[in-house]
Amino acid sequence: MSFIEWFLSFIYKIKTFPLIIQITIVLTLVFIISSLALMITIWTIRRRYNRIQKKLEETLPEIKKLFEDILFTNKIYTESEIYKNFEDIVEDVNKESLDIAVNVLVDFKNDDRESENYELIISALGIIEHLERKFDSRLNSEKMDAFQEAFVLNLNKFDAKVLRYAYSKNRRIRSEARNSYLALSSNDPYRFFDEFEGDITKWDEIELMQYLKLQNERGNLEGLGKWINYSKNDSLVIFLIKMVGHFQQKGIEEILIEKLEDDNSKVRAEAITTLGELNIRETEQTLIDRYYTEPEICQVAIVKTIQKFNSGKSLRFLQEIFTESNNTDTKKIIAESILNYSYEGRIAFQNLKNSLKGFDLTILKHVETPLIKYK
């Protein structure tokens, strides 16, 4: 029996079944055929994609060599020559090949391989337009890649694109867009500081620090002081105070001194630490006066800041609080400060060793020789 005859007989048998069974059989067949067609389509697309990716990976050494010639040698290329050479290597300049090109440039940037010719390649291959299409993609992963790539390549041409996602319902996209706006925008880059939600995580700190570093290179960090004063998010305030010390920002001493009166002890402690980072020695006596009224986190910050000042005026104070402190970890920090407090500090440290006994002496010996345990 031929297939056609079998199929016709099958149709005839179906017609003899009740209507509900006929409908069920037809829908089941449609579902099976559709599923098979979908599986075949996905397999074909995936196979084609893998073949293209494999072919592009094979061209990766040639792409790297081309870009290295353009970026790191004295050879001179025009935009049309760059496009033609790249096209000869990849055969088709499309999304996949441009993704490879962007990845190569990002790797160079991440390895701190600087050149004035990055913009030449970016312009020749239309990478700005390529990233704009990724920003417009329906896939969140594509958008996230675009945020990161635009940042690493220092392409501050996407203010409008990034701003569009700054109010996305997707928390990851919204957070990445606001962080990227900080890095990429030259117009009010800190506009989203007052909309930070909740505590800043360590990962947030790492990302924000990268973006602030870029703004610092542009000479655009003056706005930090305003947000330390105005932000209601203590977690953000603490981070920004830390960044003031890290980037050695000047002219906000008064703001830091005001933060010594903040209700949050963590904010006060970070302000004290940053006074030390900026070496604002005129606050030394103020910090000493505050010591006995502050909680331990602030006391430790005061001790470390006084050590950084290393003015020679506070050695007696450090000796007094060492003998008065009842906290083992705090005693250890104070002892380290005395030991590292110039030549007079080392003499005072030895005098303490000679005059003390018991557990306090064990702490001093541990500070001097960390292999000696004190707990």
TrEMBL record:
Keyword Secreted: no
Keyword terms: Membrane, Transmembrane, Transmembrane helix
Gene3D superfamilies assigned to the protein according to its UniProt record, in alphabetical order: Leucine-rich Repeat Variant (1.25.10.10)
Annotated transmembrane regions: 20-45
The UniProt record lists the keyword Transferase: no
Name this protein carries in UniProt: HEAT repeat domain-containing protein
